[in-house]
Amino acid sequence: MRKKLTIGLFGFGCVGSGLYEILNRSGLFNASIKTIVVKNKDKKRPIPQEHFHFDKEVILNDPEINLVVELIDDADAAYEIVTRAIRSGKHVVSANKKMIAHHLTELIDLKNQYKVSFLYEASVCGSIPVIRNLEEYYNNDTLSSVQGICNGTTNYILTIGQRRKSFDEILTDAQRLGFAETDPTLDIDGFDAKFKLQILIAHAFGVITLPEDILNIGIRNIKIQDIQYAREKGLKLKLIASSEKIGDKVIGYVAPEFVKENSFAYDVNYEFNAVTIEAAFSDRQVFKGKGAGSFPTASAVLSDISALQYDYGYEYRKKETTQLKYQKEFYSRIFISSTNPDKLNLIDFEQVEETFSSKDYAYKIGTVDFSKLSHQLYRDHPELFIAFFPEGEHLFRLAEKRDGEKCNKKNLHSR
Amino acid sequence: MRKKLTIGLFGFGCVGSGLYEILNRSGLFNASIKTIVVKNKDKKRPIPQEHFHFDKEVILNDPEINLVVELIDDADAAYEIVTRAIRSGKHVVSANKKMIAHHLTELIDLKNQYKVSFLYEASVCGSIPVIRNLEEYYNNDTLSSVQGICNGTTNYILTIGQRRKSFDEILTDAQRLGFAETDPTLDIDGFDAKFKLQILIAHAFGVITLPEDILNIGIRNIKIQDIQYAREKGLKLKLIASSEKIGDKVIGYVAPEFVKENSFAYDVNYEFNAVTIEAAFSDRQVFKGKGAGSFPTASAVLSDISALQYDYGYEYRKKETTQLKYQKEFYSRIFISSTNPDKLNLIDFEQVEETFSSKDYAYKIGTVDFSKLSHQLYRDHPELFIAFFPEGEHLFRLAEKRDGEKCNKKNLHSR
Fold this sequence. Notes:
The structure is a homodimer. The first copy, chain A, is α/β, with parallel strands linked by helices.
């Protein structure tokens, strides 16, 4: 029997209003939205003004409300709402990846303490049920990697970019179509994908790391020549969120990658998202769907609500039992390019495989110590484009510095 | 805490031996295979002969064994093993789609009566966790269709077929590579896909139908000209298992379909399987992975074993609450072709849209009453190739014969 849910909804944008529509008008679920709290008093909304409240206490202090659905943008405000709701013994469904990524350990402890469910499928890859699958289906023992195209805006830009439009033109297109925020930094620089990756790593491997420990390199500095290079080699550039288990370590990063035709990512175009999960015996599973936008997000929220009616909660079993540790040091094969050949020296390569130089474009391919790359480096030098090259060959071995063992450069290729 | 599982294993082919390897040698799972029962005493096997028993009672009468994993081919023998194991209070994991499809209602009643779990993720699309997702993630209220490429052998044949090899050559190739059984009837004629579809319909919509109520048309009669036709139109032929909710009815069939480039099926090639699930708001989700073979199957068996350690069982909530009924009558847009133009008259069209005729090849496209198609018709006339044409437009409206309402042919296109 489905549990009756009385919902307090924070936020009434596209997702919130879609959710209202299906829950209160269809009568399909034994769940209804009792109270809606929004921030802006003056905004025009599709249902009459008397449905809205502006004080969060109206929901948080209502004992009849047993589920808070939080669909607002502001991560700090979301954090306060979610923690207060949990402390009031209410279940919570949230889509706020940034807030979740920054506070995951605390939120898990809190929801355990107050014995409520805290679900957030909508926070990662919209309609793709990847958290639930990692949590319920893929055993930590056999899982070896999770990679994804987790950001629709950058994937849209990279898809259109293959047609040689300029970055700015494409970004304007994407904004017009609603795929990109007015301030696209979170998307373009890979922060959005990084928050999602951090949540994926938690549910895949039971390892909770901090967003600042995951390197994110975005697509802001991509040049037409980089796209040209990819095309000549039969590759595509995609912004990949990647995590992998190597021995008892887990590594993760968000960066552009040159992907081959046989990659899961090659045919994932426009605003689509995809996640691939690799596990012992099962080879690669690919989950593809729409990752952004109101309806895909609403569908994930609905699934969480539906699961809550049967008392579902994430159990974080992997977190309790894992022996894995997150590691920031390893070697990678990368591609850097610049309009200024001198700038290529900003990155210290362990080994250089190829260099190319012309009047207005130069690139270098080789192996670098991953820990020498940083988001700051990429932001400080807008002429420097960094990509991993290519998928499936970028990892060589973990740097074993802590053991004092000197990395044998000659063996870098032996993986 | 993971429950300890003591396993009795039936069958030691590729899947069984892979499972043995990971469970007994890796020590990763708190589960071990105590007894293996096989049929053939003389077969050479990768582990010493003393590990094998030949009498099923050794497992069925052992009270220490709390899980039976059934991985044999013979559906009748599997039925006896599974029902006896359940009656002995043992959990069961099975991969036998034929046995499950034929006895599902009875098996559900039985496992409820004896309060054990009966899991069978491996029976449908190998490593793709589609049953679990339908069971746990996709609410019946919002789900609208499930379609899949569920048979690796036929997909391999159709993929290679685009290169204009003859059907027999390709089949021999597929057998050599291990994708096709020596007797490929189950695959080629769509029975294997139909059994899987029947299981998918049960978990998607809560409707348990019988395999004989689902039309299966295979790819046996495909001609080089049919492939040529598809190529000219920018389409591909794929064997699709399809189920859809229309109002309070569910329809289902397995048949070749001409698919367009934007179809989930277009880029699913060789032995790969894929399933697409359509639900309100979420658009189409696509799950892609290897559907056949020992490792993908073993991975699904492993996931079931892992879930059992946390007392997981299918709850069939949709079956308890659904108002949907399975319906065999509806109208479809089909393509039939023949080397003999007269044979095209064997099927009575409601409406003909196109006809083509030449010395040695003729086809007709139009609308037919689905209930006039039959597996027998297709088997009796090997010169007759039948395909649905094209995906997404083949359904017009349910035939409303039971209400005595005459189907208005003029409105067939109005959907």
